[in-house]
Amino acid sequence: MEKEIVFAGGCFWGVDAYFKDVLGVIETKTGYANGNTKNPTYEDVCAGIATHAEVVYIKYDGNKTNLNILLDHFFRIVNPYTLNKQGNDIGIQYRSGIYYSNLDDKKIVADYINKLQAKSDRKIVVAVEELRNFYEAEEYHQDYLTKNPKGYCHIDLGLLKEEEKNPGK
Q1: b/e 80-91 (16+ beta carbons within 10 angstroms → b)
Q2: Which residues belong to the active site?
Q3: Which of 13, 19, 80, 165 could form a disulfide with 144 if both were Cys (CB 3.0 to 4.6 A apart)?
Q4: Average pLDDT of the chain, as a whole number
Q5: What's a Gene Ontology MF term here (predicted)?
Q6: Which domains does the chain have, with CATH numbers?
């Protein structure tokens, strides 16, 4: 039972590196979502010409994991209280977001965030939207931190515990 979700959590390199090793994740792709133009380039997004978020498309096996577990991981690696900023990355392309293509997922995400919000007096600013568009990022952005192990990453990849990892990946 394959399912999909798209997460935006700042620079997509770290989000991709983290989620590709999560138990039950079949595939990840870096890309650009929910913006104003077709086929944006990295340069367009960085310059603000394209209003897309840097995102990671995640295909997962619903028999091995579920959206709530993936949301646990997502909220472990993002600061849900900062608008258009994660780590040292600042700009609309670095906004946090959860983009769904299944209406059942919208309710799961809303319930999850409502429970999280009830525990905090700070406003959670993670966007929750239907996935309107997704464009795969350039090849050099795919698996970037695997290809460039000393590359920049605002995420502590050590937060993924051994028992949460996909064996063999």
Answers
A1: bebeebbbebee
A2: 11
A3: 13
A4: 95
A5: peptide-methionine (S)-S-oxide reductase activity
A6: 2-145 (3.30.1060.10)
